[in-house]
Structure formats: structure tokens, C-alpha cells
């Protein structure tokens, strides 16, 4: 990591495990909500995949921006998402949020399990659909370009890694200030020693982790 790279001072009360888990999901969620969706106080935001790394950060940040937040997750993660500040929680194993006649200003799909076309009826006029992951990225991109031209509702696939380092550093400092104020915390499901990195990847690949999985390295 170069001296002028994406580096910020770790808060004194933040553990090294929390520091490792902190930036990825939070930086992505921050850009999606603030820059891409232009989130405003009082808006209704739905986060699909609210218990993952990006989702847990997005729930907390959306609340900090003053939004009414609905989180979508599985049965085992309902209480976790509630504890992060979600106003409502939908159990996707029992309810399809695209069919409940509710509409939202912003829908963020953090797990690539839905699409703009499927969520369009759940968006308010001038609403925005954002996708952080997609198995069919190219198809979604063409669909996004087309649908954004023919209606007031917008769908987009956004990447956060291409922004200038200077902008990301500003955001990282802002996020650490939220951490110090007790308004944002990383969720860590499990920690594995480096020797068990294969097991860690296997656990993540199952698709059921809560927040982040951390690899620890002992100083020998």
C-alpha cells in the first residue's frame, strides 16, 4: 500500500478485525446511497441482502441519512438487521417484496438476486434501482441503459472502485467518524486464522454469512 493510497487512521477503539471488515461494504454502500441514488431524508429505502457486508453497512448509513429503511433477509438474520436500525424487515423465504404493493424511492440489491425489470413496479416515480452484484452484468447493463431512457424510474449497475483515491479517502475518514460516534459498526460473522483460509472461503461460498468474514494473521 503506497503512502498516498487508500489509508486512514484507525480509531483507537476499533479492533484490527473491525478495521479489516470496515471499509469494503461501507464505502460501497456510501457511494450507492449518497452519490448514485442521491438519498434524501424521509425517503423509503429497501435493501435486498441486508445481512451481508454491503447490506449491513447500507442499513446503518441509510438510517444516518434519515431514511425509512426496509431490510430483506432470511429468517436467521431478521433480528440482526433489526438491531442495525431497520424500520421494517422482510423475510424473503416467506414474502416477495416485489409483490407486496409497497413502493420505494431507492432499492439496492446487494446480492445480485433480482433485477431492475422485476423491481420496477416497486419503485416510486423517479425511483432508483441499484445493483452491487450481478451474475449477468452485461445483460443487466444493456437493460439498464434501455429502461432508464423510456421511463422516470432508473436502474443502474455501479462500481465504486474506479473513483479517485482522494475521494475514497475523504469517505473513509467520514465513515471512521461515524464509527467513533457509535453510528456505524462492521458486522463480523466469523474470524479464521490464515492457516484456515480454505475453510473461510468455503464458508463464504455457501452464501449465508452475516456481514463479514475476517482472516487473522498472528505476529510470530
Q: Provide the β-strand percentage band.
A: 15-25%
Indicate the radius of gyration in whole angstroms. Answer: 17 Å
Poorly predicted runs of 5 or more residues: 135-139
For the secondary structure, the number of strands is 8
Give a short account of the largest sheet.
Answer: 6 strands, parallel
How many DSSP helices? 7
The H-and-E topology, N to C, reads as: HEHEHEEHEHEHEHE
Give the overall shape.
Answer: globular
**CA-CA gap between termini:** 22 Å
Q: What is the residue-mean pLDDT, rounded to a whole number?
A: 89
Percent of residues in helices comes to: 25-40%
What spatial order of strands do you see in the largest sheet?
A: 3-2-1-4-5-6
Secondary structural class: alpha/beta
Amino acid at each position: 500500500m503506497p503512502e498516498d493510497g487508500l489509508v486512514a487512521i484507525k480509531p483507537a477503539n476499533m479492533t484490527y478485525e473491525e478495521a479489516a471488515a470496515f471499509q469494503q461494504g461501507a464505502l460501497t454502500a456510501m457511494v450507492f446511497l449518497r452519490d448514485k441514488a442521491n438519498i434524501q431524508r424521509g425517503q423509503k429505502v429497501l435493501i435486498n441482502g441486508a445481512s451481508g457486508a454491503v447490506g449491513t453497512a447500507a442499513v446503518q448509513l441509510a438510517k444516518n441519512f434519515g431514511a425509512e429503511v426496509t431490510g430483506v433477509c432470511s429468517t436467521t438474520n431478521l433480528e440482526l438487521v433489526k438491531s442495525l436500525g431497520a424500520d421494517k424487515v422482510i423475510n424473503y423465504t416467506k414474502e416477495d417484496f416485489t409483490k407486496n404493493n409497497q413502493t420505494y424511492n431507492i432499492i439496492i440489491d446487494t446480492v445480485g438476486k433480482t433485477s431492475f425489470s422485476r423491481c420496477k413496479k416497486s419503485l416510486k416515480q423517479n425511483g432508483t434501482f441499484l445493483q452491487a452484484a450481478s451474475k449477468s452484468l452485461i445483460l443487466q447493463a444493456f437493460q439498464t441503459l434501455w429502461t432508464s431512457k423510456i421511463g422516470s424510474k432508473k436502474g443502474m449497475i455501479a462500481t465504486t472502485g474506479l473513483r479517485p483515491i482522494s475521494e475514497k479517502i475523504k469517505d473513509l475518514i467520514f465513515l471512521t467518524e461515524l464509527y467513533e460516534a457509535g453510528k456505524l459498526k462492521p458486522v463480523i460473522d466469523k474470524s479464521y486464522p490464515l492457516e484456515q483460509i480454505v475453510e473461510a472461503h468455503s464458508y463464504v461460498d455457501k452464501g449465508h454469512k452475516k456481514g463479514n468474514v475476517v482472516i487473522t494473521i498472528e505476529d510470530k
